[in-house]
Amino acid sequence: MSRDKHQIAAAIARDIATAHPDGAFVNLGIGQPTLVADHLPEGSGVVLHTENGMLNMGPAAAEDQVDPDLTNAGKIPVTELPGCSYFDSAASFAMMRGGHLDVCVLGAFQVSQTGDLANWHTGAPDAIPAVGGAMDLAIGARSVWVMMTLLDKQGRPKIVPECTYPLTGVGCIERVYTDLGTFEIVPDGVVARDLAGTTHDELASLLAPVRLLRP
Questions:
Q1: For the segment 171-182, what is each residue's pLDDT rounded down to a tens digit?
Q2: pLDDT tens column, 34-52
Q3: Stated pTM of the model
Q4: Which of 39, 58, 186, 192 suits a disulfide with 10, CB 3.0-4.6 Å?
Q5: Model confidence band, residue 210 (pLDDT cutoffs 50, 70, 90)
Q6: What secondary structure does DSSP assign to 99-142, as a single string?
Q7: Is 205 exposed, middle or buried (0-12, 13-18, 19+ CB in 10 A)?
């Protein structure tokens, strides 16, 4: 079976902890990436950063934990961990632009086989563009990963030879986590691993002419 959004978030959380055993500063983009906060192992040393000015954010708040003044950048109520600090957006964006984030996880409309990212506008006449901090994060974080479904609502692949939507960043994506598997952008193409509910041959046919490589 394919992975649901919580299973994808858990895979990302696991890989962050594995790649950064001594801890890391991580930003989670608006939407599905915020779920990663709920799956980070206790004691991982991961410190979550939000554009709206919070450092050391905890998992999503539930019931009596909800504080209307304590939210992430997507306006979702969250908890705070010991040592949590607050600052204005100018300081927050300085952290993003200054290369102080180890990992950023963003949503996407499209990712090209060379790692270009399109996630702020579909180009449709009635679409509402929403840049937010995506461009700053795409170029400021040391590693930029994407969490998304592999297909859009029309059944079209979102990993493409070349993005057709307005770009957020060029050559900035290293990994793409989806419901059907995890993909790594490498110089020779796209490596598919951790497949779920599909096979490599099926994915290669679905994503063609993207060059899909085996691990």
A1: 999 999 999 999
A2: 999 999 988 899 999 999 9
A3: 0.95
A4: 39
A5: very high
A6: T--SEEEE--SEEETT--EE-S----TT-----TTHHHHHHHSS
A7: exposed
* Cβ within 8 Å of residue 2, ≥6 positions away: 179, 180, 196, 197, 198
CA-wise closest residue to 10 among 194, 138, 186, 143: 194
**What are the tokens at 95?**
């952290």
Tens of pLDDT, residue by residue over 71-82, are: 998 889 999 999
The residue with tokens 């599909």 is: 198
Half-sphere exposure of 7 (CA within 13 A, CB side): 13
> Please, which residues have CB within 8 angstroms of residue 22's CB and are 6 or more apart in sequence?
45
Q: Measure the N-to-C terminal CA separation of the chain; round to a whole number of Å.
A: 20
- pLDDT of 124 reads 81
Q: How far is the C-alpha of 105 from the C-alpha of 26, rounded, in Å?
A: 8
Cis peptide before 129 (omega within 30 of 0): no
Whether residue 80 lies in the annotated active site: no
Q: Which residues of 170-179 are buried (b: 16+ CB within 10 A; e: fewer)?
A: eebbbbbbbb
Tens of pLDDT, residues 78-96: 999 999 999 999 999 999 9
pLDDT of residue 145: 98
AA letter at 142: R
| Identified catalytic residue from 42, 51, 63, 184 | 51
